[in-house]
Design a protein that fits this description.
about 550 residues; alpha/beta; Rossmann fold; six-stranded mixed beta sheet; 19 helices; 15 strands; flat
C-alpha cells in the first residue's frame, strides 16, 4: 500500500507530505484548487514523462517521493529482488525534475531508468482516468477486459508468441521458394569458400605462431651466431660480468647489517648472479635444441602464403581467418536449411498446430468467461440507475487467425427494454458511456492484484442516488485495496474512510496549493459546500452530517 507521498517545489506546492492510510480516501476541492497535483505527482513517481513546467516558479528543481509498504506484495518483492533493489518491507520511488527539463529517478536509493520505474509502478498502482470510457468504443478494449478479468494475459501472450513463430516459418518457406536460384548460387559459393578454409585448417592464434616459427628458421644462422656470442659472455657465471658482481657483493656483505638499504642492495646483487647463471643454462639448452629444417621452412612459407592469399580474397587479416571460417560454416548451415523446403514445410505445419491448439484453448476460456462478465457489468449498471440494461459478448470467427486469437469479440449494450443490444459506439449516450466505464473499472479493480487503485473523477455525469451507489462501491473496494478518488460528488465523498481537501491560498506574492486532512466537522462543511448553494445553511449542514457514515 501507499504510505507516504512527499511533494516539493512542484507546480503550486512548496512542500507537502501526505500520510496515507488503508481504505477509501476521497480528494475534493474547488475547481482549479489543484486536485490533479496529487495524481500528477504520483504519475511522475511511476515513470510518466517529465516537463520542466512542473517545477514551481523560482525553484531549481521539483522532487517527488512515494513510499510503499510491500510486505504483502510478493510480485513487487520478487521484481525488486531480481534487480538487487530489495530493501526489506518498504519501497521508495523518487523522482527529481530540474528546471532545464532533465530528470532522474531512483528506487530504494538506486538510480534507475524510467522504464524500470514504470515497470514497478504497474505492479503498485492502477490509475483509472475520467477519460477511460473513450477506450470502450474500441473493440480491442473488450478483448483486453475479458483477459484481465479472467487472468488470461499469460495465455494471450503465449498465443501471440506462437503466432509470431508460425508467421516466421511461413516467411522462411516463401523466401526459400522464391529465391531458390539465388540461394543455390550462394550455397555453392559458401561451399567453395569453406573448402578452401578447411584445407588451410588454420586455428585461432596459429597464424601468429607460424609467423614466429618462420622468422626463426629464416634467420637461423644469425640467431645461432648471436646466441652463441651471448652465451660466451655469460660463460656459466665465470664471465667478467659475474666476477664483477661477485666482487661488489663481497665488498658490501661485511656492511649489510649496518644499513637496511645495503642489505637490500646485497640481496639484489645476489639475485642478479642467480639470474645470470639461470639465463646461461637456459640459453645453452636453447642452442642444443636448435636445428635448421629447410623442409619445415618450405611448409611454413606455403601455409603462410596461402593464408595471406585467402585473407586478401576475403578482405580480412590473416589472423582473422579462423573467425571467418566459423561464420561461413554457420551461414552455410543456414543456407542449407533454407534450401530444405521439406523441413521448412514441416516447420510451418508444426508451428501452426502449436498456435491453433493454444488459440483454441484461449477461445474456449474467453467464451466461458464472457457471459459471467457481461452479467456482472449489467448488474452494476442496474445499480447505477439503468434498470433495463442488457449486455452480451458476441464472438465472430476471424477470416484468418491473428496474433490475439481466432475471434473478433465485441461487448454489445442496450439500455432499454425491447431494444436489441448494439455496439456501444452506436447507441450509448455520454452519460451511459460514463456509467458503463465506471462499472467496467470497478469490475477490473475487483480482479486486480494491484494494491493501490486511483480513480480520477470517474463519477462525472452521475448524481443523487446513483452517486451514492458509486460511493458504496468504492468504499467496498477500499476494504480489499487502497482507494484514492478525486470526486465532485458529495454522495461519493461522504463514503470515504479518509477525506482530503485541496485548497489554494496566498503567501506573500505567491499563490500556493495545499492538502488538508479533514476531521468530522470539517467534512460536514466540505460536503455541504459540494452539495451546492451560494450560502451554506443550517439545513445544508444537517443534510451533509446525515450523509456521513
Amino acid at each position: 500500500m501507499l504510505t507516504l507521498l512527499k511533494i516539493s517545489q512542484f507546480t503550486l506546492v512548496e512542500t507537502m507530505e501526505l500520510d496515507i492510510t488503508r481504505g477509501f480516501t476521497v480528494i475534493t476541492g474547488e475547481t482549479g484548487a489543484g486536485k490533479s497535483i496529487i495524481l500528477d505527482a504520483l504519475g511522475l513517481c511511476l515513470g510518466d514523462k517529465a516537463d520542466a513546467q512542473v517545477v514551481r516558479h523560482g525553484a531549481d528543481k521539483a522532487e517527488l517521493v512515494a513510499m510503499f509498504d510491500i510486505s504483502r506484495h510478493q510480485a513487487a518483492k520478487e521484481w525488486l529482488a531480481e534487480r538487487d533493489l530489495d530493501d526489506s518491507q518498504d519501497c521508495s520511488l523518487r523522482r527529481v525534475i530540474h528546471k532545464e527539463g532533465r530528470s532522474k529517478a531512483w528506487i530504494n536509493g538506486s538510480p534507475v531508468s524510467l522504464g524500470e520505474l514504470r515497470s514497478l509502478g504497474e505492479l503498485l498502482i492502477s490509475i483509472h482516468s475520467q477519460h477511460a470510457h473513450q477506450s470502450l468504443l474500441k473493440k480491442d478494449s473488450h478483448r483486453q477486459l475479458i483477459d484481465n478479468v479472467g487472468e488470461l494475459q499469460p495465455l494471450a501472450l503465449e498465443v501471440a508468441a506462437h503466432y509470431h513463430t508460425w508467421q516466421q516459418c511461413q516467411q522462411a518457406l516463401r523466401d526459400s521458394l522464391a529465391n531458390q536460384a539465388t540461394q543455390q548460387a550462394r550455397l555453392e559459393l559458401l561451399s567453395n569458400q569453406l573448402e578452401e578454409l578447411e584445407k588451410l585448417a588454420l586455428k585461432t592464434g596459429e597464424y601468429e605462431a607460424l609467423e614466429q616459427e618462420h622468422d626463426r628458421l629464416a634467420n637461423f644462422e644469425a640467431l645461432m651466431q648471436d646466441s652463441q656470442h651471448a652465451l660466451s659472455l655469460l660463460n656459466e657465471g665465470d664471465s667478467p660480468m659475474s666476477r664483477q658482481l661477485q666482487q661488489a657483493l663481497r665488498s658490501l656483505e661485511a656492511h649489510a647489517s649496518r644499513s637496511d638499504s645495503l642489505r637490500d642492495i646485497c640481496g639484489s646483487l645476489n639475485s642478479a648472479l642467480i639470474e645470470i647463471k639461470e639465463s646461461s643454462r637456459e640459453l645453452s639448452h636453447f642452442l642444443d635444441n636448435q636445428e635448421l629444417d629447410p623442409a619445415r621452412l618450405a611448409v611454413l612459407e606455403q601455409k603462410i602464403g596461402e593464408a595471406q592469399r585467402l585473407a586478401r580474397k576475403h578482405k580480412v587479416l590473416a589472423a582473422e581467418l579462423p573467425t571467418l571460417h566459423t561464420h561461413i560454416k554457420e551461414e552455410l548451415a543456414q543456407c542449407q536449411h533454407s534450401q530444405d523446403t521439406e523441413a521448412l514445410q514441416q516447420a510451418v505445419v508444426e508451428s501452426k498446430t502449436i498456435y491453433m491448439n493454444s488459440a483454441e484453448s484461449l477461445r474456449q476460456q474467453r467464451q466461458q468467461i464472457a457471459p459471467t462478465l457481461a452479467a456482472a457489468i449489467a448488474q452494476h449498471l442496474r445499480d447505477l440507475s439503468m434498470p433495463d440494461t442488457q449486455t452480451e459478448y458476441v464472438f465472430t470467427p476471424l477470416a484468418k487467425p491473428s496474433s490475439y486469437g481466432l475471434d473478433d469479440m465485441e461487448l454489445l449494450f442496450s439500455a432499454n427494454l425491447g431494444q436489441t443490444p448494439q455496439p456501444l459506439a452506436k447507441i450509448a449516450s455520454g452519460g451511459e458511456l460514463s456509467r458503463f466505464s465506471l462499472a467496467v473499472q470497478v469490475i477490473q479493480a475487483q480482479h486486480s492484484d494491484v494494491p493501490v487503485l486511483v480513480f480520477d473523477e470517474v463519477d462525472v455525469g452521475i448524481s443523487g442516488g446513483t452517486a451514492e451507489v458509486v460511493g458504496n462501491l468504492l468504499r467496498k473496494l477500499g476494504e480489499r485495496a487502497q482507494i484514492l478518488c478525486i470526486t465532485h460528488q458529495p454522495q461519493v465523498a461522504a463514503k470515504g474512510h479518509q477525506h482530503w481537501q485541496v485548497e489554494k491560498y496566498n503567501s506573500g506574492d505567491k499563490t500556493l496549493s495545499r492538502v488538508v486532512s479533514l476531521n468530522h466537522e470539517q467534512r460536514i462543511k466540505e460536503i455541504a459546500r459540494m452539495s451546492g448553494g451560494v450560502t451554506i445553511t443550517q439545513e445544508t449542514l444537517m443534510h451533509a452530517a446525515s450523509m456521513l457514515l
